[in-house]
Design goal:
Strand order of the largest sheet: 1-11-8-7-5-6
CATH class of the largest domain: Alpha Beta
Shape: globular
Largest sheet: 6 strands, parallel
CATH topology of the largest domain: Rossmann fold
Order of helices and strands: EHEHEHEHHHEHEHEEEEHEH
Strand content: 15-25%
CATH superfamily of the largest domain: NAD(P)-binding Rossmann-like Domain
CATH architecture of the largest domain: 3-Layer(aba) Sandwich
Number of domains: 2
Structural class: alpha/beta
Number of helices: 10
């Protein structure tokens, strides 16, 4: 019988821990941590994520600011906005919500963010620090996966971890993090062009699926007793639901779950820990900014 890696419940617990720390710091005379977000255009998923970020920020006692710009905003104007945020001492960390409109070069924008305020962990300096095992802001989803494994006491030392998906946002960084001291996994990084993929995934003690394809991983790809972490999230039309849709992941859970020792649900697994990681990174930036030990 499998057990759930319940990100929703864990996220509430960690939020309470952060909120307590914020209250204690305010009692000592410090200001509240300040997290900002920049959003360009009207992408629905981006709007939802930023709204959830605002809600979570307020729940833990952070100040939250959102800078909204129209779809037509030029790259030059956006770079000026980032420069303003970089230089505002009252803002501890900020994110630029992706994707950006096609006329804006995302890498130019990411590169303009101060590494000290890059709480998404996307700048080349933070990525380089992470790869070298130095102190860095780690991207939110990989950090959330690591938090799930740690907090649930999943044994990782010497285990074979297979990661499906090589994006710079999830697959590549989580493969790097889990190979490091403290986790000590032996990691195999796979992708859509990997040969004999099912043979590799069946050897995994820990299988992390971030390939972005609905129900890609089926029962014949998973060994019995594996820990399976499903990073995917897809909205599928379903007329039987009041909402008109249902949410599924990259794993075919009705087949796979019964083989697992631990598995993340979708939704309610990795997703809630992503925003928690953003809050934790902001707290870290805030303490550095105010030189709080």
């Amino acid at each position: 019988m499998f057990e759930l890696l319940d990100g929703k419940t864990l996220s509430i617990q960690i939020k309470n821990e952060i909120a307590t720390e914020v209250r204690n710091l305010m009692a000592d005379g410090y200001r509240t941590p300040h997290l900002a977000a920049v959003i360009v255009g009207n992408d629905g998923a981006s709007q939802t994520y930023v709204a959830n970020k605002e809600k979570s920020s307020h729940e833990v006692g952070f100040t939250s600011s959102v800078y909204r710009y129209p779809e037509s905003t030029s790259e030059k104007d956006l770079l000026e906005a980032i420069e303003f945020l970089n230089n505002d001492p009252e803002i501890d960390g900020f994110i630029v919500q992706l994707p950006l409109p096609k006329h804006i070069n995302e890498q130019h924008i990411i590169d303009a963010i101060s590494p000290d305020k890059d709480v998404d962990g996307f700048t080349a300096i933070n990525v380089g620090r992470m790869v070298l095992g130095e102190d860095a802001f780690v991207p939110a989803t990989p950090m959330g996966i690591c938090t799930l494994l740690k907090r649930y006491g999943i044994e990782t030392c010497g285990k074979h971890c297979v990661v499906i998906g090589r994006s710079n946002i999830v697959g590549t960084p989580v493969a790097n993090l889990l190979s490091r001291k403290g986790f000590d996994c032996t990691v195999t990084l796979c992708h859509s062009r990997t040969k004999n993929l099912a043979e590799l995934t069946r050897s995994a003690d820990i299988l992390i699926v971030a390939i972005g394809k609905p129900e890609f991983v089926t029962a014949e790809m998973v060994k019995e007793g594996a820990v399976v972490i499903d990073v995917g999230i897809h909205r599928i039309p379903d007329e039987s639901r009041k909402s008109g849709y249902r949410i599924i992941g990259d794993v075919k859970h009705d087949e796979v779950d019964k083989l697992c020792s631990w598995v993340t649900p979708v939704p309610g697994g990795v997703g809630p820990l992503t925003i928690i990681s953003l809050l934790e990174n902001t707290m870290k930036a805030y303490k550095k900014n105010l030189n709080i030990k």
